[in-house]
Every structure is written in C-alpha cells, then in structure tokens.
Specification:
Length: 283
C-alpha cells in the first residue's frame, strides 16, 4: 500500500511543472515595461560609436577607391558628418562607371540592377550598407537620359525613420556615374542586438494622449504648436528614429518611437519617444 508521502510527490511535481510553464509563457509575451530603468538595460538613446573613427575609415576607403579607378591627383571625399558615408562626389573625381554586366552594348533593366548591386557591394564601406540591407524603391529615367536609382536601408526589426537610411545614385546610359549620396547607418548589424534589448515604456494609447495634451516642440519646428481639437491621431507601429545628438560631435542617436499619423493637423506625422516619453520629431 502506498504511503501518503508517496502519493503527494507526483502532485508536487505536477504543480511545479505548471508554474514553470506559466512563467515561461508570460516571459515570452514581453509586455510594455511600465517599471523604471534597470541596471542591465542598454544606455539610451543608442549612439553610433566613435563617429570620428568612422570618418577616418571612410576617408581611407575613398582613397582606395580613387586609386582603383585611377583618378588623377589627390581628392578628398565629401562625407556625411554623422554617418561617415559618401555625401557627394568631389568635383574633380573624374569618370566613375558602374560594373559592366553582359556583352550587349546596352544593358537591359535586369542587367542594370545587377550592375548596381555589384557597385553597392564594392562601395559598401562608403555607402554604409551591404546590398542585402538596401531595397530599391525607385528606378526612373529622366528626359535627358540620366537614370536614377533610389534605395532605402532596412537593417532593423523596426522601420528606420528620421531621414536617414537613404542611398541615391544617378548615372548615364553608358554607366558613367553623375552623382551619388548616402546617409545609411553604418555597422547596423552591430546595433540590432542593442535595439532588441529595448522595451517600450509608453503604450501607443498613452503616446497619443500625451501628444494631444501638450505643446509640441521638435527639431525643425519654429517655436511650438498644439494640435487642433478635430485632429485625429493613430499610432500603428514602433520605429527606430535617427537624429543628430545634441552634441553634434557625438554623431547620431537612435531612439525607439511611436510613429503617430495625424489627420487635420499642421503636420502629418509625429514621432514620440516610447521610452523617454517626449516628442522627438515631426514630418
């Protein structure tokens, strides 16, 4: 005959297993964090490390590319001060052409896109992004024959906002480059784990409520403004918002923000920091 102690052991085991499963499920949900900051959380906002070092690396990369293309004389790259990416080609850069794809005199559209992909791979240090991070969002031909390709960088779990993460290149039918400009986020793959460690402290509903009740001051706004009573607000998703640090020598900062769409207001979009509880930008 089983003793009472023997009968209780399976019951205790079942109870412990139930508690463990419930705890694991709650952890997986990762709800909005309404508590204060914790010691093991990453520094916020997230800063791009060592902007001066990035500018130095980009200058070296430009020198190597200018040697590769045989550009006459010494030229200095025009670099974005926050990202260290190529902002424009020097006036005396000389002819730079896209890689040739195929044997036909004129490339097909498919060959042109492959040529662009190879160019991005070769210039990734100066563009600040690898081909797999860039999505082609526009390919147009001007009446003059000059072709334009516009790319958006999509390196993070959340969409990138703030006017950064763009690469534009213009070139002629003979593949000679007319201009190019990039403000992509370099080494974005190293930032993703840090961004994954952030949890919003402000819900979408609270963000909308706070925007409605306060005078809005944001970079690029002359003074402050308030939204009219008939304005309609909707916060659909979290985004990564990039903006220059208050101390410009520190380069860019990345913030986790609610993108709030505004109808019947003086602006179309308000970006509200989901951790710092403040308006950080408008569009």
């Amino acid at each position: 005959m089983f003793t009472q102690t023997a009968l209780m052991k399976p019951l205790f085991a079942l109870f412990a297993m139930t508690i463990a499963l419930a705890t694991g499920a709650c952890a997986a949900l990762q709800p909005i964090d309404v508590s204060g900051p914790r010691a093991n959380e990453p520094a916020y906002p997230i800063s791009l490390a060592d902007p001066s070092g990035r500018l130095e690396q980009a200058s070296v990369a430009w020198y190597q590319m200018s040697q590769h293309y045989g550009l006459a004389g010494k030229t200095d790259a025009n670099l974005n001060p926050y990202t260290g990416t190529v902002e424009s080609l020097p006036a005396n850069a000389g002819p730079i052409v896209l890689p040739k794809v195929g044997t036909e005199p004129q490339q097909t559209e498919e060959q042109t896109r492959e040529s662009l992909r190879r160019f991005i791979s070769d210039w990734r240090q100066l563009i600040g992004a690898d081909p797999e991070q860039l999505s082609l969002v526009e390919r147009t031909d001007d009446p003059s024959g000059v072709k334009t390709a516009r790319y958006e960088q999509k390196p993070f779990r959340y969409p990138l906002r703030g006017g950064y993460g763009n690469f534009v290149i213009r070139f002629r039918p003979d593949r000679q480059i007319v201009s190019l400009s990039s403000n992509c986020i370099p080494n974005a793959d190293r930032l993703q784990p840090v961004l994954n460690g952030l949890a919003p402290k402000i819900t979408a509903t609270d963000a909308i409520d706070h925007v409605k009740k306060q005078a809005i001051a944001a970079p690029g706004v002359n003074g402050t403004f308030t939204l009219p009573a008939n304005a309609t607000l909707a916060a659909h998703e979290l985004v990564v918002y990039a903006q220059p640090a208050p101390d410009q020598s520190n380069g860019l900062q990345l913030r986790l923000a609610w993108e709030i769409q505004v109808t019947n207001g003086p602006v179309k979009t308000v970006y509200f920091d989901a951790i710092a509880d403040q308006v950080i930008g408008v569009a």
